[in-house]
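Hi L.,

You mentioned the student needs an example of a multi-chain input paired with its predicted structure. This one should do, with 594 residues in total across all chains.
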Amino acid sequence: MWSTILSVIWQRFNVSRRAYPWSEIGGNLLAAVVPFLAGWILLRFVFGGRVDNSFTQESGGTNYLGFLAIGLATYMNMTGVLLAVGRSLITEQREGTLDALFLTPVSRIGYTLGYTFYQLLLQVPPTIALFVIAWLSGAQIQVLAPGAVLVNLVMAVIGFYGMSLVLASVMLAIRETFITQNTLTTALYVFSGILFPVGYLPKPLRFLSEGLPSTRILHLLRNAWLYGLGPRDLPADYALTAMVALGFLLLGIWLLRHVERLALADMTW
Amino acid sequence: MIEATQLVRRFVVKKSRQFRSVVQEEITAVDGVNLNIERGEIVALLGMNGAGKTTTIKMLSTLLKPTSGTIAMDGIDVVSQPSLARPLINMVAGGEKMLYWRLTGKENLVYFARLYGYGGHEAAQRAIKLLGMVGLSEAADLAVERYSKGMKQRLQVARGLINDPRYLFLDEPTLGLDAPIAREIRNLVRELAREHNRGILLTSHYMAEVEELSDRIYLLHRGRIIQQGKPEQLRVLSGEQVKYNLTLSGVNAANLDNCFRDLGVNGLKVTQAEGTTHVEFNAPQEFPQEHIFRAVTALDADIVDFRTLEPSLEDVVVALVGETA
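Structure written out for the whole complex:
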């Protein structure tokens, strides 16, 4: 499987450096930095540098810039994985390479993990740049529980990967990328607790949001990073989040197998 | 050997009606197909559009699961163990597909080799060897988007050989190619079967190509095999006749007319010009030519020219399909 993962990373790197040598990293960087600067301006000039008590209650502290930086970094990595894996198979189908790919004995998990790790590697420079800018803007971004942060990063990879498999299946099944990806990324941006705590959302939306691995992982990641709270402090939350992430992973694998067969049958007929 | 038995594939097609609900219709694309492919032979699968050729190839190549039926490949059950069959097969399709246009020719081959489990060095070696085999060594480091149609097709053939398959499925491999490039591809296909002992299943709309390459032909119509055999056997089965064209000297046209009619040939046409007599007629495939020579000897005539024109495979296919329809 590692051979497949490395091959896909190598292939994606070569395709990207010819298709969009700088714009991909540049685009990612802007997508993360601009919302952060907007948040910084709002906090400083509109809200006078203060957050109210409700934010403290919902998020567990007053560090909005740290909250925002971690949210945006998570969003950037999550959407990178979701869109890359989500579009991978339908792009192969549109470009006429899906048959050639499925003729090989390549593992589907290895193939999609290749896309996942390539995207995570691609997001490293913009993520570092985002935290540097956040630090320069006065955000408190000191990691208080590195071990717990690491656990969350592992859960994030599993959860985002699972979500991306579900998305890939939906895109392949309905043969549509534009509405799916744009609607989804906008919805995640607003409803996953990237800019504000999900406690502010109406109850039905909050319920839906907390059913996603992204919301749960982001909540735990902030608690570990900014407030030093790890699995020992929040065992039930960690267990539930791990279950949700694994649930999405299993659902994604199952869906993809079914949709793959349907897609190949549709292409034939 | 690949042996497919009673292959059936049905599709459910959704048809939406305006202002009404979607209607589902079941269509049988392949209906009880039996075929086999030995290593070292080229087998053609012919049929009109929608006959079920692509569906059959996709089932044989593990891309599509049959609704029912079995496919055995060198002792492997392809339907239940596709992952064991995949390393033994590959497919080449016409029409500039199955390649990554942003990658170079060499990168394409290295990538696919690695997906087949070759190590980095071995994959590169295989890519270089195959690029040389299809005459693309000099274009190895050029992005595929800059390749001509013929170059892309040759690269596809190289990709189809990247895993050293025992069986190769060629779906319209020369589609849209210029004559010299198409000839190169045909020579390569022949070499793969004859010298490298690969079993090849070919579909093509170019009947001359099928006629030139194939050892056996399966004729598919509406999902069923309606005829099979060597090209010459299909000619006999089709009832299409051989066209004879003779030029004789020293013969009386009236006698000749009676004599040839007695042979039971069809469409007899006799014309005289500049001291020679031209005779044209049609006769069945199995018609013994010695009857003609005997008749000419009896007339005490000399044969100046003797030509026969076999019915083309296209005529044969049209006749056989028309008969079934």
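You could point out the following to them. Chain A has a mean pLDDT of 87. Chain A touches chain B through 26 residues (CB under 8 Å).

Best wishes,
N.
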